[in-house]
Amino acid sequence: MSPAVSAPAPPASVSPLDVVFMPQAASVANVGRALKILVVVSVVISVIVNPRALTSWSDFAIAYGYTFMYSGGLWLTNGYAVGWLNRRYTWTERPGRRLLLTLAVSLGGSVAVILLMNAVLLLLRGRPLARLFSGDMYWALLLPLIVTVIISLFNHSRAFFFQWRDASVRAERLEKETAVARLDSLRRQVDPHFLFNSLNALTSLVEENDPARAVRFIRQLSQVYRYVLDSGGQELVPLADELRFAESYLFLQKTRLGDALAVELALPPAAALAPFFVPPLALQLLLENVVKHNTAFQTDPLRLRVTLDAGAPSLTVRNTLRPRRLAPGESSGLGLKNLAARYAFLTGKPLAVGEEAGEFVVTLPLLVI
């Protein structure tokens, strides 16, 4: 019997072929439509394969029941196998394992169904099961297997193509988001306001006749800009590098604001940071937002605290929530949105943003490669 099968009509967001060749996880409506289509397909196959059965209702009932179970068994074995494998072993992540599992599940399941249904047919005809492996059963076993392999090959090829296409689209969107975030970060870092404030701070150090601090300030400023340029083409950077950059950035801000900015870095030793990665300039964005969006006074400093949770793993930045009014054009309002979008393409763990007890808190998931 032919293993050709069909399936329920797809929802608006899914291609019809996705449902025909890849049965969906089952709603009652989908199962009902699948059964209706399978009933019609089995009737057509029964008439084409055995037209003489139309002369006898009993013969037709046997032919139809056999065809329905045959087609249904092959459909379930191959169709649901694709869905199950797509959820657990995608072509894009583990292609070698997926190929072996595809051969084992699809081909092995089809052979089992074909042998079972031919064994049932022999029993219905009152013949011994020993004939199942005799020469006259060769084509009865081989022909449906060939048809099933062809349909299954098409089915798995489609699954591979669509997963590859989705991965390509995701990679392209990630590249776009990263480029937007990189340009936005570069724009902020080379922002005349940032450079103007830094040069003002440097001028004050020179006027105060403090050459040691002035030299250190210049070195830290150069490290900030070097890091921005060096990390611009990377999707991920080691957390240790990002933290060293943050220390340089915070030194510049502390020099400018003095005691108005109180910083606490509650971090483990450098060796414990080695497994973790973050998108470049992710931490800098949070630190910049703290200084830009909040007021800071010498008598009432703006408190900033950075902590790491190696168990989660995550990096949390919290600060005193004291919003200040920004000048027009001083902030695009897209920094956190862009960062959240970048994280959405890199990991399933979301960026957490919220307020707790008068503090603004942002938690960055740490990635492990």
Topology:
Layout: H1 16-21, H2 28-49, H3 57-88, H4 95-124, H5 138-189, H6 192-207, H7 211-231, E1 237-238, H8 239-257, E2 261-266, E3 276-278, H9 282-293, E4 302-309, E5 314-320, H10 335-346, E6 352-356, E7 359-365, E8 367-368
Parallel strand pairs: 2-4
Antiparallel strand pairs: 1-3, 3-8, 4-5, 5-7, 6-7
Domain Signal transduction histidine kinase internal region: 181-261
Keywords: Membrane, Transmembrane, Transmembrane helix
Protein name: Signal transduction histidine kinase internal region domain-containing protein
Largest sheet: 5 strands, mixed
Number of helices: 10
Report, as a whole number of angstroms, the end-to-end distance: 50 Å
* Fraction of residues in β-strands: 5-15%
Q: Could you give me the name of the CATH homologous superfamily of the largest domain?
A: Histidine kinase-like ATPase, C-terminal domain
Number of domains: 2
Order of helices and strands: HHHHHHHEHEEHEEHEEE
Helix content: 55-70%
Q: In terms of structural class, how would the helical and strand content be classed?
A: alpha+beta
Mean pLDDT: 75
Pfam families: His_kinase
Protein name: Signal transduction histidine kinase internal region domain-containing protein
Keywords: Membrane, Transmembrane, Transmembrane helix
Transmembrane segments: 34-54, 60-78, 99-125, 137-155
